[in-house]
Amino acid sequence: MPNNIEPHSKYVRYEFAEFAGKLEPVSYEIPTPTGREVLLKVDYCGVCHTDVHVHDGYYGLGQGKRLNLGDRGIKLPVTLGHEVVGTIVASGEEVKELSVGQQKLIYPWIGCGECSVCQRGEENLCAKPASLGVFKPGGYSEYIIVPHPRYLVDLGNLNPANASLLACSGLTTFSAIKKIQPIHQDEFVIVIGCGGLGQLAIRTLILSGISNIVAVDVSEEKREIAKSDGAKYAFDPRSDDVADTLVNVANGNCIAVLDFVGNEQTVDFGLKILKKGGKLVVVGLHGGELRYPIPFLVTKAITLIGSYTGTLAEMRELVEFANQHDLVNIPVELRELARVESAVEDLSAGKVPGRIILKIS
């Protein structure tokens, strides 16, 4: 594939040089892809809660303890952004199957490619990750390098801006939902946290034929969005006796909880409302510690699952699913790349009812 980039041309990516520091534009020379690498111009990039956590530099572990991401292999400076749709502008000499001008969704959860986990197709769980926007420069940028064509997925007929959400938000919810299936007609699924991920989860559940859905969120605005998306009931978890009320409206048949918040209170709430044989899938990373009586875990046969993003195969399946259904039609706000600092700040402060997507001109 010909490389149409002028030698020594410059581009800008937004990065932070210290955790919790400012996201500032830095000029770099546009890289020349080699081997199986592909260079794409970034068109759209979602702003995700994972970006907030990586920018903060830690996950809360409860009791004042932290998991410091600098100790987990994340090296500064960092260019965030892992929900990326881009247009191919060049590739290495070994790439024959792609063409300049093709627009692709990028799978960002790249592993080492060699270990047993990667060989099983679970690169998102690799112990030596090379994830774009975390360990490698991501989509808060004008250009991005992808190490292999296999990580590029055709969009089909999807809106490219909203389709960017499928690389993380959509994939994370899709993978979590697969972990609770099958759901029988009389069983209920509880969705805790109805921001961008929760909204996508409700839409995915409805489009999958699962209609008994209860939404739980502290925000009245997000509860209303959840009901408009198809949730039968929506509750404020701070209300008196809300757990008992929820169990009653579900006829004691809460078979699964999808927790998109992931703090001590939401996990405790989820465990309280599950029926025997139920599954709690924790996706959110707000942090804390888990406390639960072990005899209850055994006698109720509760399954507790941590779910982290999803596989490349699941993303391909998701894109096909999204093309067959109206999945990614959720509230989004487009912002220019230069406003990325405010986008991360607003998401961190809980001021985003849907999702912010960066549009790179």
Automatic annotation (TrEMBL):
GO cellular component term, pick one: cytoplasm
Looking at the keywords, is Zinc present? yes
Q: Record's superkingdom? A: Bacteria
Task: Establish whether keyword Zinc is in the entry.
Answer: yes
Which SUPFAM superfamilies would you find in this protein's record? GroES-like (SSF50129), NAD(P)-binding Rossmann-fold domains (SSF51735)
Essential cofactor(s): Zn(2+)
Q: Could you tell me the EC number(s) of this protein? A: 1.1.1.1
Span of domain Enoyl reductase (ER): 21-358
Q: Which UniProt keywords apply?
A: Metal-binding, Oxidoreductase, Zinc
GO function terms (MF aspect): alcohol dehydrogenase (NAD+) activity; zinc ion binding
Family assignment?
Belongs to the zinc-containing alcohol dehydrogenase family.
Name of the featured protein: alcohol dehydrogenase
Q: Which organism is it from?
A: Marinobacter profundi
